[in-house]
Amino acid sequence: MSSTIEMSISVTSWAEFPLANVPTSEELERINIHLDLILLGLEALTNLNGDSLIGVATELNLQTTMIQNWLPWVQRQSLTSYENQKSKLLKVEEARSLIVIICYLCQQNQEIIRRAVTLLEQITAQNKDPLGLALLSNYFNKFARLYHSNVSENKRLESSQLSKLAFKLLVDSLFYSTTNGHHRLWLVMLDYTR
After folding, report:
1. Which of 52, 70, 83, 107 is the most exposed place for a label (fewest CB within 10 A)?
2. Torsion angle, CA of 24/25/30/33, rounded to 10 degrees?
3. Spacing of C-alpha 169 from chain mean position
4. Do 27 and 193 contact (CB within 8 A), yes or no?
5. Helix 159-176 vs helix 25-45: angle between axes, to the nearest 10 degrees?
6. The dihedral sign for the CA sequence 170, 174, 175, 179
7. What does the angle CA 148 – CA 67 – CA 84 come to, to the nearest 5 degrees?
8. pTM of the predicted model as reported, rounded to 2 decimal places
9. For residue 156, what are the contacts with CB-CB under 8 A and spacing of at least 6?
10. C-alpha span between 80 and 4 (Å, rounded)
């Protein structure tokens, strides 16, 4: 309960903090894609679904209608087809709210994220294949299925690149599970767009 209160206070002050540089529409497109990939990673590791996002938005007093309009499970084509949905582009307020929700979900799932990252570090240090461990194999296989079902064939990453992406997203999610994870993720998103 205290983490919810702590997160709510932090979120409220952050959400009201004015932006010095508002991302352009092109930058928001890239942010949208990257946030969707992070959600794919969370979905692959946990039982995340659209109701999870709405539940957290409600718990944190964020506008649920804004999140419902963006839900990646409704609009997952965000990974590949912006040309057809210019009117549905992510807005700055939606991006910031979604970042807060993602970080809160990372906090809620920090134990499994930490366990998976620890296993990944151990197996990598031993120069062994991470897919030899059940937790990491299940995570990657589910991530790959979600990725392939949502990205057109001509834009898909090769298997080795996809593996690197999946495990990078896993490690990154541990950093987003900290109290100030939403600041960290927002800075990553802005840096990612440059």
Report:
1. 83
2. 140
3. 8
4. yes
5. 90
6. positive
7. 50
8. 0.81
9. 147, 148, 162
10. 34
What 163-169 contacts at long range (C-beta under 8 Å, 24+ apart), as own/partner pairs, is: 163/130, 163/131, 165/37, 166/41, 166/44, 166/139, 166/140, 167/120, 167/130, 167/136, 167/140, 169/37, 169/38, 169/40, 169/41, 169/143
**Tens-place pLDDT, residues 27-72:** 888 888 888 889 899 999 997 877 777 788 888 887 766 666 555 5
| Per-residue pLDDT reduced to its tens digit, 115-127 | 999 999 999 999 9
pLDDT score for 162? 95
CA–CA gap between residue 174 and residue 103 (Å, rounded): 9
- Per residue in 61-102, pLDDT tens? 877 666 665 555 444 544 544 344 444 667 788 888 888 889
Answer yes or no: are the C-beta atoms of 193 and 23 closer than 8 Å: yes
